[in-house]
Amino acid sequence: MVSVTDLQEMYEAMVTARQYEERLQEEYLEGKQPAFDISAGPIPGELHLAAGHEASGAGVCQHLRDDDTVTAPHRPHHIAVAKGVDLKRMTAEIFGRETGLSKGKGGHMHLFDPDVNFACSGIIAEGCPPAVGAGLAAKKRNTDSVAVAFLGEGAIDQGAFLESLNLAAVQDLPVVFVVEDNDWAISMPKDRVTDVENGARRADGFDMPGTRVDADDAVAVYEAAREAIGRAQDRNGPSLLEVQVHRRMGHFMGDPEAYRSDEDKAAAERRDSIDRLEADLRAHGVDDETIDELRSSARERVEEAIEWAKEQPEPEPADAHEDVFTNPPSGVTDSEPNVAKTETGGDD
Amino acid sequence: MAQQEKDPAEGGQTDRSLTMSRAMVEAIAHEMREDDDVFYMGEDVADYGGIFDSTEGLLEEFGRDRIMDVPISETAYIGAAVGAAQAGMRPIAELMFVDFFGVGMDQIYNQMAKNTYMSGGAVSVPMVLTAAVGGTYNDAAQHSQTLYGTFAHLPGMKVVVPSTAYDAKGLMHNAIRDDDPVVYLFHKRLMGIGWLPAPDGPKTPVPEDEYTIPFGSADVKREGSDVTVVTLGLHVHRALEAADELADDGIDAEVVDLRTLVPLDTETVRDSVAKTGRLVVVDEDYRSFGVTGEIVARVAEAEDGLAALEAVERVAVPDVPLPYARPMENEVIPDAEDITDAVRAAHGDE
Amino acid sequence: MSPDDDRVAVDTGDVWPEDTDEDEGVVVNWFLREGADVEAGDDLCEFQVEKVSVDVPAPTDGTIDEIVLEEDDEFERGAVLAWIEPE
Q1: DSSP secondary structure letter of residue A87
Q2: What is residue A323's DSSP assignment?
Q3: Which of A49, A196, B106, B240 is close enough to A249 for a disulfide, judged by CB 3.0 to 4.6 Å?
Q4: What is the dihedral of CA B66, A46, A249, A34, to 10 degrees?
């Protein structure tokens, strides 16, 4: 059974993640109205927000420790929040600042926080093999840590995912694959790209357990994840979970979603896992005051992170030449600046 | 639709201008009307019309059988295009971002590009692989590359990089009709999409009639006598901007747009350098082992090539992945000022 | 539209996207110049509301007499993009 503490912690992670996406949306759209120019404003580039995915991140990561590894896809914020990634430095990264997790080199699709063993890939399904590798390292070193690869339902048709399932299975590795099914691969509905409605059935072909959590429900995710992660911790091999979530803010910010019906968008709004968990909290005797406190502390934490991030300095242009290698072949920087720039000085 | 049946000679549309994406789509639609064997496969190419408008409006005319959304399975659908091409069809497969080529690379370089050779010419692979390329909007290391040199390096693929709407249409007609695999790399910043504004230049007048631009014919986009600037894609426009600025200081730059890397029009480049004696190569790909080095080598290899060459400069992305934050991305992707500086250096100015 | 003017307005309100609460747009591309002959339905230009792109067809056969809103101009819903002198 789930404890009240677990419920409260998941709730906190979920409202933090939702608040975070809502605030990032505001910040992102600054300078992008009325003309939406993707390279304008304080946060440029693509931004894939995860509002509606919170139950998956919170329900799974509630079971994880800092030494457990998580790989996340291009829509990573809710998972990062639940895994305990440093929120301030993550926000600074998204704002492209020098003190960001990756000194501004990565951006929102490429968040890395080694302190909590969190990494991302912006390429579909390509976070799966590194998660298998983390599981392999745990097995070889005989630790009890596990690895979790998060991916979207559009990614289950990729070779990298299917090959990872097989490798993890044949090597009995402590890996859990979590498919977040938000019904849409950008504009492509699931039934257009696969004949298998229940993605967890992909597990059958590799003789591993596959479970689908049909409702967008943090407690149900928590229960299913406990079994899968417990199995990995007990060194009984990998599992596959598919979790129904909902996409509330388009594929990326500015997605007109012309391909998506109003009913589908409205349904995604209605099935709010945060409301559901709030009802669960009340059913467990948590009072309004406590819930309000959790919400306001989440809001404050998000606000603090965003304010801090915006005060951070931008990187220097020359910083672009560093960090290609851990052991740069020679010289101070990893790469040669442009010829013209070399001649105008700036040999730093 | 009425406008498609209109005779361009009498309609008012002969002086219309198109964005690069619309010009590309016009060529694809024309070829699809002419030849039932042409079809288009990719992610989000049907209802969405391509994330970068590469198939906008085609679903409505041709339906789902010919404008096919496919699973996120690059290996499978690019390989399926190879197989369909070998079976006699003329597929177009789209990689949403060229950066995703790694996911399906074996089908691209070991199958698509080699089957003709490995079969001793018995097999043809008449397909087009389209892909969006390029940075300048802070999409970071996995969504901003051009990889021009990677495709051009591996034998067996023709590689096309349009810089204007006019070129994009003519080159696309050619690409679909060509009996070999053609990699058609369109720069996101040139497509004329509202949310990713293009510079002045890629939107050009485009005839409604079909026309082809032969592969291997570089285009002198600006004539000049002092310095030759050889480039492609977005950087054609950045080089033209630099040339305008240099003209104010009395430096007359010639801008050569390669338009295709395979085949490469070495002659136009050599002729220009023979005239100017100074070569600046500008590329949005990584510096080492790429387009810039290749062009310099081709010029140097020519008879008396080294004698003609008074100065050489390379302007390219240094050998680092594309960083996310604006100051760093601006640092590594060459801009007009970088080109201006390089031309001045080649010209002997300090 | 003044009564002594028989020119036809190209009205942004006629083609405003349905799924938006936004009342401001921006002209993204013109495909034709002043003086060009058009047939009803020809694409004249493209504007953008939020990230939705809208093609604007000629409302009538005629000649583009005046382009009111140029590329990058921002405008309110219902603004006139251009005037067409009917044939």
Answers
A1: H
A2: -
A3: A49
A4: -100
Give the model's pLDDT for residue A338: 54
| A87-91, A287-291, C18-22: the lowest-pLDDT one | C18-22
CB-based contacts of A247, cutoff 8 Å, min separation 6 = A52, A53, A182, A183, A184, A268
Q: How far apart are CA B271 and CA B264, in angstroms?
A: 14
Half-sphere exposure of B278 (CA within 13 A, CB side): 20
pLDDT (0 to 100) of residue B350: 56
Give the whole-angstrom CA distance, residue A101 versus residue A113. Answer: 7
Q: Which two tokens stand for residue A68?
A: 């457990």
pLDDT digits (tens, 9 = 90+) for B32-41: 999 999 999 9
Taking the C-alpha atoms of residue A224 and residue A203, their distance in angstroms, rounded to an integer, is: 15
* Chain C contacts in chain A segment 244-263 (CB below 8 A): 254-256, 258, 262
Min Cα separation B190/chain A (Å): 14
Q: Which amino acid is at B304?
A: D
Question: Directed axis angle between helix A273-283 and helix A288-311, to 10°?
Answer: 140
DSSP B200: S
Is residue B143 annotated as a catalytic residue, yes or no?
yes
With CA atoms as reference, the chain C residue closest to B10 would be C37
CB A107 within 8 A of CB A97: no
Assign B13 to helix, strand or coil.
helix
Sorted by where each begins, the domain ranges of chain C are 8-86
Does the beta carbon of C53 lie under 8 angstroms from any beta carbon of chain B?
yes
Q: Confirm whether pTM is higher than 0.90.
A: yes
Residue of C nearest to A37 (CA): C51
| CA dihedral (B317, B292, B246, A344) positive or negative | positive
- A: neighbours with 3+ CB pairs under 8 Å? B, C
Please count the structural domains in chain B: 2
- Average pLDDT of chain B to the nearest whole number: 95
Output the DSSP codes for A223-291: HHHHHHHHHHHTT---EEEEEE----S-SSTT---TTS-HHHHHHHHH--HHHHHHHHHHHTT--HHHH
Interchain proximity C29–B15, CB inside 8 Å: no
User: Which CATH architecture does the domain made up of C8-86 adopt?
Assistant: Beta Barrel (2.40)
CA distance A276 to A196: 28
Give pLDDT tens digits for C5-53. Answer: 789 999 999 999 887 888 999 999 999 999 999 999 999 999 999 888 8
Concatenated DSSP letters of A150-164: EEEGGGGGSHHHHHH
Q: Helix or strand or coil: residue B236?
A: helix
Interface residue B100 vs chain A (CB under 8 A): yes
State the best of B1, B7, B10, B15 to mutate against chain C, taking most chain C CBs within 10 Å.
B15
Q: Which of A194, A319, A335 sits opposite B319 (nearest CB)?
A: A335
With residues binned 3-state (H G I as helix, E B as strand, rest as coil), the percentages for chain B, rounded to 5, are 40, 20, 40
Mutate which of B72, B147, B337 to test chain A, going by most A C-beta atoms within 10 A? B72
Going by pLDDT thresholds of 50, 70 and 90, the confidence category of residue A34 is: confident
Q: Which of B155, B183, B205 is the last residue of a domain?
A: B205
Find the radius of gyration of the CA atoms of chain C.
12
Query: DSSP string covering B109-136, please?
Result: IIIITTHHHHTTTS-----EEEEEE--S
The domain A4-312 is classified under which CATH number: 1.10.10.10, 3.10.450.50, 3.40.50.970, 2.60.40.3080? 3.40.50.970
